[in-house]
From TrEMBL:
SUPFAM superfamilies: Clavaminate synthase-like. GO terms for molecular function: dioxygenase activity. This is Phytanoyl-CoA dioxygenase family protein. InterPro entries: Phytyl_CoA_dOase-like. Keywords: Dioxygenase, Oxidoreductase. Pfam families: PhyH. It comes from the Bacteria.
Length: 289
């Protein structure tokens, strides 16, 4: 599925954009389903098991920041977990055996979509090896003005950076530490129906949406089947095996020499990355004052 040039780019940069994975009809269905979720958010006043809301959300003007675990809430989202073209991309990188983890739909509505602070996914869920990636399905055209995903090239080959504040895991890096050169970040842009694939250790974030266009990115987390979570899987082996998206499971984790920093102790209040990062920004601001 991937060309040799695309595989080299993924290895060197830590991310790629692959065009034309979903058909226009598939994209249109995802938009229709998502619009209905936003409409139902009028009856929601605070974050819940499905929604993260923008601070400016009201019943008259529903503003959704994230739909959590969308694959559990509608079959149109769930179908992408084993979409043959998405799986083929991952198999080009890791081989035949692919396991799903979870999903989220990050939404940046026109003119007010919030930023996501710089972080590494690896900081949240270290495994026995780092053949893990997030696949982002572009439901809209991703352009520099509407807050696309930003990646610091080559950062996936470096250390796992500190994602703690005041001794507790908060899910974001402190820019004041100058861990990487953020000015070198590149935007992952493309047309609706394309996908992004970014390495689990890549430093990434996104800017606010300052345009008059929507920016909805449906993110699926995948891993090679022989990558096992270091913090375990409380739901048990049967549930873990049910996450296989292609190929065969294995009881032999592959161990790799990769940097690890555990996400412990957890935040005082467990919430989404947005909620934790909002608290982090307050702490950084107070510290700067």
């Amino acid at each position: 599925m991937l060309t040799d040039a695309q595989k080299r780019e993924y290895d060197e940069v830590g991310a790629i954009v692959v065009p034309d994975i979903l058909s226009p009809e598939e994209v249109a269905e995802l938009r229709r389903v998502t619009d209905s979720f936003v409409e139902r958010a009028r009856d929601v006043s605070t974050h819940d098991a499905i929604y993260d809301l923008e601070d400016s959300h009201t019943p008259a003007m529903p503003r959704v920041r994230r739909i959590k675990a969308p694959h559990l809430h509608h079959p149109a989202y769930a179908a992408l977990v084993r979409h043959p073209r998405i799986i083929a991309v991952l198999q080009s990188l890791w081989g035949p055996d692919i396991r799903f983890d979870t999903a989220k739909l990050n939404m940046k509505s026109a003119g007010f979509g919030a930023a996501v602070e710089w972080h590494q996914d690896w900081a949240f869920y270290p495994h026995t090896n780092d053949d893990l990636a997030a696949v982002g399905v572009m439901m809209d055209d991703m352009e520099p003005e509407n807050g696309p995903l930003l990646i610091v090239p080559g950062s996936h080959k470096g250390p796992v950076f500190d994602h703690h504040a005041e001794g507790r895991f908060c899910g974001a890096m402190d820019p004041a530490n100058h861990d990487v050169d953020y000015a070198k970040a590149v935007a992952l842009t493309g047309k609706a129906g394309s996908i992004t694939v970014h390495h689990v250790r890549a430093v990434h974030g996104s800017a606010p949406n300052t345009s008059n266009k929507e920016r909805r990115l449906l993110l699926f987390q995948f891993r090679a089947a022989d990558a096992w979570p270091l913090l375990g899987f409380p739901e048990g082996i049967e549930a873990y095996d049910a996450l296989m998206a292609a190929g065969r499971s294995s009881l032999s984790p592959r161990l790799a020499d990769v940097p690890v920093r555990l996400p412990l102790p957890p935040a005082d209040k467990q919430g989404s990355i947005y909620e934790n990062q909002k608290g982090l920004k307050r702490k950084f601001f107070e510290a700067a004052e």
